[in-house]
Design a protein that fits this description.
Structural class: alpha+beta
CATH superfamily of the largest domain: Jelly Rolls
CATH architecture of the largest domain: Sandwich
Largest sheet: 6 strands, antiparallel
InterPro entries: Cupin_2, QDO-like, RmlC-like_jellyroll, RmlC_Cupin_sf
Oligomer: single chain
Strand content: 25-35%
Distance between the termini: 45 Å
Radius of gyration: 18 Å
Protein name: Cupin 2 conserved barrel domain protein
Organism: Deinococcus aerius
Number of helices: 4
Length: 202
C-alpha cells in the first residue's frame, strides 16, 4: 500500500494531469481520498473507463470541464458536485482554453492510488501513447493487475478483452512486462515542503 499525505502531488506529463492530495485515505474516513486535479487545456484522463468498486465525485472549481457520465455528455456545472457511482462509464477532459481545476473524491482510494502511480510512471518514462495509454502487452498485464480498480471501455467488449488478457498476460509477463512496477511504487510522490516553525517572539 502506498502512503500519501495531504500536499503530496502526482503528475502525468502526457495527459496533463497534476493531482494534489487534500485528504489522505484513513480508517476514519472510509479510505476516501480527496484531491485537487489541475488539467491543462486539451488535457484529459486516459480514456473512458469504469471503476467496478470505487465511487467518485467531481466538483469543478475553475475552468470548463467536459464530462461523460454514462450515456450523458455535458459541461460540468461550476461548483456543483457530480457523483459517479461505482460501475458508471465516465471520462473527463479540459474543454476550455485555460487550466481547469477539479476537486475529486475517491472512495475507497488505496488501490486507485497504486493504479495511478503505475500509469503516471509509465507516462513519465515515455511508455504510453499521446493519450496516456500503454502499448498492448503492457496494457494487458496492467488490466489484469488492476481489474478490481479500472476497466477501459474503448476497444474490444469487456468479455473479449477478458479472454485476450487471460491468454496474452502470461506471455507478456515472460517478456518482462509487469502490471505493477516496484520501481514506480518505490518512487515517493512529490511531497510538499514542511512549514518551518515560527521563531519564538522575544
Amino acid at each position: 500500500m502506498i502512503h500519501v499525505e495531504p500536499g503530496d502531488t502526482l503528475e502525468n506529463p502526457v495527459t496533463g494531469e497534476v493531482v494534489t492530495v487534500i485528504e489522505a485515505p484513513s480508517g476514519a474516513n472510509g479510505r476516501r481520498m480527496i484531491c485537487e486535479a489541475t488539467v491543462r487545456p486539451g488535457g484529459a484522463v486516459a480514456g473512458a473507463h469504469i471503476h467496478p468498486h470505487i465511487d467518485e465525485a467531481f466538483t469543478v472549481l475553475r475552468g470548463r470541464v467536459g464530462l461523460r457520465l454514462g450515456k450523458r455528455t455535458l459541461i460540468a456545472p461550476l461548483g456543483e458536485r457530480v457523483a459517479c457511482p461505482a460501475g458508471t462509464v465516465h471520462d473527463w477532459w479540459n474543454a476550455g482554453t485555460e487550466d481547469a481545476v477539479l476537486r475529486v473524491e475517491i472512495t475507497p482510494a488505496d488501490r486507485f492510488i497504486e493504479m495511478a502511480v503505475n500509469l503516471f510512471g509509465l507516462a513519465r518514462d515515455g511508455k504510453t501513447n499521446a493519450r496516456g495509454m500503454p502499448n498492448f502487452l503492457q496494457l494487458v498485464v496492467f488490466a489484469q493487475e488492476f481489474a478490481d480498480v479500472v476497466t477501459f471501455v474503448e476497444g474490444p467488449p469487456p468479455p473479449v478483452m477478458k479472454a485476450v488478457v487471460a491468454v496474452v498476460a502470461p506471455l507478456a509477463r515472460l517478456l518482462g512486462y509487469r502490471g505493477s512496477s516496484p520501481e514506480y511504487l518505490a518512487r515517493p510522490p512529490v511531497r510538499a515542503p514542511a512549514t518551518p516553525p515560527r521563531a519564538a517572539r522575544g
